[in-house]
Amino acid sequence: MSLADADIVHDLDRAPGASAGASRAAAVAELVAAVQTRPGHVIVIAQDAKAAAGLFSEAEAQLATHRAVRVRGRELDGSAAVAALCADKEESGGLQALIEEARAAALPVVVVVAEADAAGADRLERLRQAVECVSDAAEVVRMVLLGSPRLLDTIRRPEARLLATRVAAVVRVPVETVTPERRAAGGLRAGLAGLYTHAVALVGVVVFATSMLAPKILRPRDHVAGASAPAVVAAAPSATRPPVPAPAANPPPAPAAAAPPRPAHGPALQVGAFLSAASAEALRRQLAPRFGEAYVSNIDRDGATYHRVRFGGFASEADLHAAETALREAGYAPVRARD
Description:
Rossmann fold, 2 domains, four-stranded antiparallel β-sheet
């Protein structure tokens, strides 16, 4: 292995992503953030390709994309993937027109490769070449590769050298481990459940037997002269019983935290767009300590609401450029927009 290849291995191993001990929710959040905000491609690693696809399905509901297509690694064809992306663009510029539309909307174009570890390094690299073959595509297109741990070995092969340099995040699907204590607790719960089931069955038998014998026991009493049902006497309240205090009035609700003010109309930098308002707010709070106050701008399009995370209020082009440079150096993909 050459020194350059060793660097690629090192970069993949330390690529941003959810750590092995992170929760599943954290892995989903990291996958969403990587697709929405990082220029480059994302690898999702799980015990097997099916588990990796399951994590992406959870994240998919939170992703805001300009267009997305899913292909299978076993049948991977870069030209076919591009044709699927541009099915309605052949007469208006094809992939270039799609990329320009996505940049204008500040939304990524996503190509999801299921069972990517079955594709082989050469076919994955040809797919990258196909989807990045036009201007600005590298900033807009995200390939999401789903597979088992052997997918990392595939990306490390010399044939995928350029693809490896474009990996922005490696998200690992956490595996829930069963400790001896949890296994013992599970056995105890199962034993108690069995006892409960048997007890319920026994009570059912007793109730059934009682219902069958009750008419024979009670019928003679029906003919007793003067028999009457016992009177039900309501107990008088005790004189020593303390008075019930009146319910306390509901306290006034705490004032909600004021959202950051939206700057006046002007140039802005958009860092991400989400279908989930919570995901957008999480990114806004993450950015604020390092880059100043961001805000969330909503827009309705095609029946969906997109929550866009933006910076604005720039006093000059120099300020705008400085913020854009700082965000790019931190691994984000800001897109210029206007409010």
